[in-house]
Amino acid sequence: MMQNDVELQAAQEYVSRCGVLATVEDGILTKVTANPEHPNGCICVKGTAAPETVYSPDRLQYPMLRTRPKGERDPGWVRISWDEAMALTASRLVDIKARHGPEAVVFGCATSAGTSAADFFPWVQRLANAFGSPNILFASHICGWHRGGSAQYTYGVSWPQPDYDQARCMLLWGYNPQASQPADAIRISRAKARGTKLIVIDPRKASVVDKADLWLRVRPGSDGALALAMIHVLLEEGLYDAAFVRDWTNGPFLVREDTQQLLTERDLAPAGHPETFCAWDSKSVAPVAYRPDHGYRQDGVDPALSGTYAFTLADGKTVQCRPSLALLKDLAAQYAPERSEALTWVPAADVRRAVRMFAIEQPSCYYTWVGLEEHTNATQTSRAVAWAGLLYGATVGMVMAMALWGKSIHRLGPQQTMLYAYLEPVSAVLIAAVGLGEALHPLQAVGALLTFVGVGLASGQ
């Protein structure tokens, strides 16, 4: 019997990228084990079961052609060659494009949770682009789109992987790495052995909870309220990074009380620029203009984060305006830990302890997975969590993203520091109704005041 151990740089059955060793005996894959010399040397039950997947009698291994019409009990599948399959597929695509246009074709792609889609998905995108179709079907809308999309909408970029190796505090929200990403589980265990603090937010007593210094057992579906409770503590106790909020968010931008939209230069003068926004400079005691592609029109400004200011519009109407951070502060106060405890089921003292721990034990890092996704209003809930990240701030050379809270750390370089892209604010409910039995989530009452809080700004870099 001939046996070979084949080293795989990363098993592609999931996003964990586990480094493994595949044992082949007489040409047959017999087992897959963790590679101790690989940086991600680990394996989960899915990887261990790889031989069963490879040799399953139900596995489709060859192109099959239907020979009978759809709807018949026997589809009449027959095996064809790869060349025949490629030629048939190409001819059908060309025919559809010629008769109906490239937009008539949707290019589907499997989920990366259980396949190697993470590697071939970019090629599906390139194929669709080359074909001329804008239609790509992916499974992320029921998995991880909310966390990625909400981060990009809020910051302008998605989030990088947190650097557990350097962190002094880690927060895992709806994420059990032992089951989802064994490579992360190993790094988190090593960090814990070094004395790093761990906060876990999860309604279940997942295996990672056993390692937690603090477990917030949130009521399912109330994560948005919990995020606002944490924001309240940050603002009330002065734990947020005011300098970062002034320099890198639209927290200072003034919001009109009549329309709940950002005050623009166009509002004040017919010839004003529609994307030039206004803040109040505490030094000059006067308004100051900001454009995403140029920054403030003068140096040394000290944008106010609180207060109410009256402006006369181009049509002669007078409106009251307040900084968007002040509106977020008002909203978060409605969900102070002591007020939202009945909704979230998390003791107020534990919420305050978690916020303080994350703010003080720097550098810190944060990560969430689909535990925060599989519920109503997942996108807006994730945005509420993202706002908390912005309030914690970021050190120079660190990109604020979903996984980065406070003086947070990650694996991207300083050249990517200025990736915040301004996104036009929209009038939309922050977090709409979330069904909790017969009751509606109280955040249903929240209006459009703060949909633009926490948006990162390009500063002419």
Explain how this protein is built.
The structure is a single chain. This protein is α/β, with parallel strands linked by helices. It has four domains: 3-54, N-terminal domain of TfIIb; 64-142, no CATH class; 147-241 and 341-445, 3-Layer(aba) Sandwich (Dimethylsulfoxide Reductase, domain 2), CATH 3.40.228; 250-327, no CATH class. Helices cover 31% and strands 16% of the residues. It contains 14 helices and 19 strands. It has helices at 45-48, 50-54, 82-100, 117-131, 145-155, 177-180, 182-193, 223-236, 242-248, 265-268, 324-333, 337-344, 348-360, 378-392, and strands spanning 3-8, 20-25, 28-34, 64-65, 78-79, 107-108, 136-137, 169-173, 197-201, 214-216, 254-256, 277-281, 286-291, 295-296, 309-312, 318-323, 364-368, 435-436, 439-440. It has a four-stranded parallel β-sheet with strand order 10-9-8-17, with helices on both faces. Strands 1-2-3 form a three-stranded antiparallel β-sheet. Strand 2 and strand 3 form a beta hairpin. Helix 8 crosses helix 11 and helix 8 crosses helix 13 (348-360). The radius of gyration is 26 Å and the shape is globular. The N and C termini lie far apart (62 Å). 38% of the residues are buried. Mean pLDDT is 80; it is low at 394-461.
